[in-house]
Amino acid sequence: MRYYEIYSINSAVANDYFGRDEKLFQLFMEMKVTSDMKMQVILSRQIDYITTKISSIDVHECIHRHILNHPDQYRNKRWADNRLYDSEGFVNLYCYPNRILLEASGNGNQETGVFEALRSMDCYFLAIDCQKNCGGWLKPVKSVSLI
Predict the structure, then answer these.
(1) 91 has which bridge partners?
(2) What span, in angstroms and rounded, lies between the C-alpha atoms of 30 and 1?
(3) Count of domains in the chain?
(4) Is residue 105 one of the residues assigned to a domain?
(5) Mind telling me which Pfam families this protein's record contains (predicted)?
(6) Positive or negative, the Cα torsion across 39, 93, 63, 114?
(7) How far apart are CA 50 and CA 112, in angstroms?
(8) What is the pLDDT of residues 95-145, one digit of tens each?
C-alpha cells in the first residue's frame, strides 16, 4: 500500500520556492516527526499560512470528470472520500479542508490517474510520499523569465 498527503500550496509561496521544493517538503516532514508540542503548534501555523483550503466538492467533480474519460475505472463515493478501482488495484481518496490523503494499491496506474485529474484542478498541489519520505509537485511550477 502506498500513502500520499497532497497539499494545495499558496501560489505566491509556490513561485517563491521554485527550485527549492525540499524546503517545503522538510517543513511537512518535520511536522510529522516532532514530538514537542510547542514546535507542533509553530509548524502547524506555518503550514496553515502556506497552504490553501481544498474544496471536497471540487475534488469530487474533478474525479467524476476523470471517471467519465476512463470507463474501465469504477467509483464508490461518500461525502468526504472517493474509492476508485479497476481490475489491477484501487485508490482511496480522503478529502480534508487542508489536505487530501491518498492510499493506493496495485501497479501504480491508479494514483497516476488521480494525480493527472488533480493536476487539472489546481496547479499548486504538492504531494508527499509518506513511506519513501519524498515529495514533489503534481504539476511542476515553471520559472518565469523577467528579462
Answers:
(1) 84, 104
(2) 23
(3) 1
(4) yes
(5) SirA
(6) positive
(7) 25
(8) 999 999 999 888 877 788 888 889 888 889 999 997 888 888 888 766 554
Per-residue model confidence (pLDDT) at position 81: 67
Tell me the C-alpha distance between 29 and 125, whole Å: 16
DSSP alpha helix (H) spans, 17-144: 21-33, 37-50, 56-69, 109-121
Contact status, residue 61 vs residue 75, Cβ threshold 8 Å: no
Compute and round to an integer the Cα radius of gyration of the chain.
Answer: 16
Beta carbons within 8 Å of 103's beta carbon, 6+ residues apart: 1, 2, 3, 4, 91, 92
The reported pLDDT for the residue numbered 56 is 86
Range of the domain at 47: 2-137
Contacts of 79 (CB under 8 A, 6+ apart): 56
Q: Which helix (H) or strand (E) holds 12?
A: helix 11-16
Domain containing residue 93: CATH number: 3.30.310.250
Q: What is the DSSP string of 55-73?
A: -HHHHHHHHHHHHHH-TT-
Helices and strands (H, E) in the chain, number of each type: 5, 8
Q: What is d(CA 4, CA 104) in angstroms, rounded to the nearest whole number?
A: 9
